[in-house]
Amino acid sequence: MLFLPTALPGVFVIEPEPKGDDRGFFARTYCREEFSATGLCTEWAQCNVSFNLKAGTLRGMHWQAAPHEEVKLVRCTSGAAFDVVADVRPGSPTYRKWVAVEISAENRRAVYIPGGFAHGFQTLAAGTELFYQMSAVYVPHAARGARWDDPALGIVWPECEARVIASRDQSFPDLPT
Q1: Radius of gyration from C-alpha coordinates of the chain
Q2: Catalytic residue among 30, 112, 132, 138
Q3: What are the pLDDT digits (tens) for 37-69?
Q4: Rounded-to-integer distance, Cα 50 and Cα 130, Å
Q5: Fewest beta carbons within 10 Å, which of 22, 27, 98, 116?
Q6: Bridge partner list, 6
Q7: How many CB atoms are located within 10 Å of the residue 116 CB?
Q8: C-alpha to C-alpha distance for 57 and 167, rounded to whole angstroms
Q9: Where residue 176 falls among pLDDT bands split at 50, 70, 90?
């Protein structure tokens, strides 16, 4: 696997290294020893699937507050998504900065998201499914969010004909300045 650092310290794009032959290929997508050697989380408490019927579905920006912060390892198992990670740690030198990467069933990339970072995505195809490995179980009272179009973040989302956004995601407050 290749661990590609992003502009946000601790956030990685992880690419498999396929070994192919006339049957197709084989690739490792997770290895505890390789993750550990890179200083990344190796303990997963929960796995989730997000299935999205329509292209243009936007979910986010979500995280859990301390002491229930969670590390996420997110990959796309069907379709494609514009995946966004934003630093929501007040006092961080990269506070309110964000990175985006296209993850898809075709490119098989994963995004590693440390605690203290918000996550969201917009689907680029109908029938897009994302698979999440989580370091902590979901704690409803620790759930937090920032609006997908919060001007403090300034995320540039892909254009689409019609976005599908839950009312909860549209009603999150702006991040503090």
Answers
A1: 16
A2: 132
A3: 999 999 999 999 999 999 999 999 999 999 999
A4: 5
A5: 22
A6: none
A7: 19
A8: 12
A9: confident
If you ran DSSP here, which 8-state letter would residue 53 be given? S
62 belongs to the catalytic site: yes
Of the CATH numbers 3.40.1390.20, 2.60.120.10, 1.10.10.10, 3.40.120.10, which one belongs to the domain with range 44-170?
Answer: 2.60.120.10
- Residues of 58-79 as b/e, b for ≥16 C-beta within 10 angstroms? bbbbbbbeeebbbbbbbbbebb
Residue spans per domain, the chain? 44-170
Helices (H), the chain: 32-37, 167-170
The SS3 call for residue 34 is helix
Cross-strand bridge partners of residue 134: 46, 72
Active site residue 95: no
Token duo for residue 88:
């929501």
CA separation (Å) from 174 to 45, 80, 142?
30, 28, 17
